[in-house]
Amino acid sequence: LIFLRHHIDDGLKYEYLTVENPIELWQNLNDRFEHLKAVVLPKALDDWAQLRFQDFKTVSEYNSTLFKIVSQLKMCGEVITEDMLLEKTYRTFHASNVLLQQQYRLHGFKKYRELIGSLLIAEQNNELLLQNHDSRPTGSAPLPEVNATSSEYRGRGRGCGRGRGRRRGNGRNQNFLGPRNNYSMKWQNSDTEQRQNNAGQAQNKKGNCHRCGMEGHWYRACRTAKHWVDLYQASLNEKGKQI
Predict the structure, then answer these.
(1) Which residue ranges does the record annotate as region Disordered (predicted)?
(2) How many domains does the chain have?
């Protein structure tokens, strides 16, 4: 009697408070709610007939809905076997996955949990493949590191501008620059360097590349992949929209 009263609704506790015989209480509850099976069964059978694997976005959603319907059918006395669960899933695959459905049939699963476990693993692997594809589309170059690009450009500037590089301003390479003179430690074409510096400063007063928007290099030394440059240029052309 204590067990029955502990698990029934609070409203029913007050209604059957005067009943002290547990057999009498059980019979009263059975008479009151026995007709619910006849009410739930038609709806559960219709939900089972309309259930399709292709109508759900994820395997977990389908699995949860299926067991909810199966529990209602079992409560009403209907028997749902493992073969019925497997066949329901196989027959409701999407039409574009006919070959995939046949492959799962050839595995010869005996338990529904084995089939649903394989589907969950395949779904997780497909999500990882799609994420990798979206982060770097097919045929695109790997993304450059900003620090590596910046240091590479600065290293070239020191080697050429100060005469400490391996090519220019070094007396060992006499065939390239000719005899060593007073100007061998300087840039050979100072006018060209001055024009490049003035143009670079005019284009990039804030220190950002006008081609990709990154810091640490100028437009002439930009090595950013083309698809990132296109996204940055599109964001500049459509300032009022979210890119």
Answers:
(1) 133-207
(2) 1
